Amino acid sequence: MKKPRINYGMQGLRSEKEKYSIFSLARNAFTHHENWAQAWKSPEPKTEYDIIIIGGGGHGLATAYYLASQHGIKNVAVIDKGWLGGGNTGRNTTIIRSNYMWDESAGIYEHSLKLWENLSQELNFNTMFSQRGVLTLAHTEHELKEMNRRVEAIRLNGIDSDVLNPAQIKKLVPIIDINPNLRYPVMGGFIQRRGGTARHDAVAWGYARAADSLGVDIIQNCEVTGFNIEKGKVTGVETTKGSIKAGKVGCVVAGHAGVLAGLAGFRLPIDSRPLQALVSEPIKPILDTVIMSNSVHMYVSQSDKGEMVFGAGADSYNSYAQKGSLNIIEGMLAAAVELFPIFSRLRMLRSWGGIVDTCPDASPIISKTPVDNLYFNCGWGTGGFKATPGSGHVFADLIARDEPNSIAAPFTLNRFVSGYLIDEHGAAGVAH
Amino acid sequence: MLYIKCPWCGYRDDAEFHYGGEAHIKRPFDADSLSDEEFSEYLFQKSNTKGLTLERWVHTSGCRKWFNVLRNTVTNEIIEVYPSNQLPHSKAGKEYYKSNWRRQSATERFTILQAEK
Fold first, then answer.
1. In this structure, what CATH number is given to the domain that contains residue B31?
2. pTM, rounded to two decimals
3. Number of domain units in chain B
4. Angle formed by the axes of helices A388-401 and A103-116, nearest 10°
5. Which residues of A touch B (CB under 8 A)?
6. Strands A290-293, A134-138: parallel, antiparallel or unpaired by DSSP?
7. Domain range spanning residue B110?
8. Residues A343-370 pLDDT 10s
9. Model confidence pLDDT, tens digit, residues A264-301
10. Of A7, A49, A63, A161, which has the fewest CB atoms closer than 10 Å, so is most exposed?
11. Cβ–Cβ gap A416/B2 under 8 Å
């Protein structure tokens, strides 16, 4: 009996010819790789779209992809003031996990992690998703006790989570120093083995290519300068490439969410702050787990190129300058060297900053707004990358049906009036 | 790295300071009389401006005194440093203070109304 052909990765592609595979690689080798089809077009904007998504980062492109693939709405444009994935999508430390304490957070981050697990197949694009495990360290007795309590809460939501003692941590991460005389000794930790990393650019490119194949227009270098609003309902956007009409508008612009909300005439409970990351020179593989520490505020993983990727905390002050203060990096590196003495002579190659949209309760906003047919997806703060597929998935659902599904429902703007906050500051596993 | 001029201690790195958020937010006198929307506006809504902003800083690792700063959030340029019980003196600072939505917000109107009574 003939096996039915499972068409993973073909939803987003118009023809078999466009599919990336070992065969297409071999076929293109004959023409010296000069005839690869363009991954996405760069069209001029049409005068009207059913839906416009502002922001061509991972979340925006994922939203457009799911609108086209799940809801059959293909007359969609994604517009970005710069280039695809040039904002926080290309600036984060690519950590993916779903071990959040509150049920609402567990709902959306686990939804996202499940989509990650099949994303490369679905998009026919290698996102280099690697479930290498995310280990969060505890450095005080109190932190360890709280961690045990949190691990039970996470397990009750069906999310894998294990507490490890220092000896187990040493076995898993041989380069870590578990000497109890350290300033912040390693007293234990908890691990989500399904967590890991992915290639951030590939996520944006994969979604862009799949969305483009379904008919979505991806328009770069086109900045939104205003909204056209009639009788409390959005009818289009003004851009640097002229005005574009739209039935609905979804806004996924991270750090600039407050600026766009201002253009639409309402306010958000969001502060935009710089968050920094840096990478070292490439070295041989020495770390195959993601290590995070809440107390000393450091997180580190090793990229496939061999670079150590470090993340620090957000700066305390509001800024749109895409750079942060050096003392944040100094503090983080001091902690990294104490935990991993082998890093002491590692040279750092690059550091950069992204502007993150932090919410008072460190949870996102996926919501309708005071303007009809205008939707905002923002407030992901320091941890939006891990949520890229899930965020796009539920946001597409919200835009298509004009009402949030059960995963997105807790994350409305109205929670700042009702007081039903989802306070993830302490519970998220890393300070924000 | 911001280089902030503390009115008492002079120029120091921002690592010595703590950020106090937006300046000149008035707490409503009688919060019980405000609706949830109005109180939410006072408590949660942010100016978060791209450009000029008035903000509070405290010199935690120095004199531990609070003061206000007029800063551009795009360039990080500090335009004015002034005492926390005063309004900005520079032209740009005065203009920003007047145009800020908080001066017309429900909580601000309410506070002024109560003060007049």
1. 3.30.2270.10
2. 0.93
3. 1
4. 110
5. 256, 258-259, 267-272, 316-321, 325-327, 360, 416-419
6. parallel
7. 3-116
8. 999 999 999 999 999 999 999 999 999 9
9. 999 999 999 999 999 999 999 999 999 999 888 889 99
10. A7
11. no
